[in-house]
Automatic annotation (TrEMBL):
Originating species: Thermostaphylospora chromogena
Assigned keywords, A-Z: Endonuclease, Hydrolase, Nuclease
This protein's name: Putative restriction endonuclease
Domain of life: Bacteria
Pfam families: HNH_2
One MF annotation (Gene Ontology) recorded for this entry: endonuclease activity
InterPro entries linked to this entry: HNH_nuc
Boundaries of every HNH nuclease domain copy: 136-185
Higher taxonomy: Bacteria, Bacillati, Actinomycetota, Actinomycetes, Streptosporangiales
Amino acid sequence: MTATLSILTTYTSDGARAPYEDTVGKDGLLRYKFQGNPKHYTNSSLREAFNRKVPLIWFYGVNQGLYLPFFPVWIVAVEAEHSQVAVALDEAQRHLSSVEGPPSEIERRYSERIVRQRLHQPVFRQRVIQAYDASCAMCRLRHRALLDAAHIIPDSKPEGIPAVSNGLALCKIHHAAFDQNILGIRPDYRIEVRADILAETDGPMLKHGIQEMHNVSLTLPRRRVDRPNPDLLEERYHQFRAAG
């Protein structure tokens, strides 16, 4: 039992400074910081896990006292000069040459995609759904299996950060309608349905599910820090208006 079994990243609200800055390196691999003195037993057990190449569980905080587990992960490099270790989220990342030298562009992009898909997106989803109390911000549907964490600004753009303030808990139909610019959200948190959609005549889903959302106010998270960023909403609203 000399090697660590798990690592943990505590929950930190958006905008607050985390006690340990676990980040993604230039090679696309995650970095997990040592805790305090590099010679502390917890950090020695990280080195032992690297030497023995054993899998770990990474518990990632998504709310106070609530963690999302990722297993297996591996320590693939010890970077004592920076008081940190490099962590791989899948088997392919374990064997990238980037941990021993400069990564190729393909390797870096692959690692960044893996981190986004396997860590940032699941954490983002859980944090957003928790912030909205497992309820669609538009129609109040409370079936968690039918809810998505929608980005206001897509994560493919630099400003599309995986923060709760860049997210909305939406049911799948309203998420799709938002992505397709069938409806938009004004910076004052009111929903706007595109004019041509309002003029359509169709079945009850269009009438009650989409058209009746026009000018309805979003249900917002209780904590102000978790509410949609008005600047991001305004940017996204301009795209909605242009599409219409």
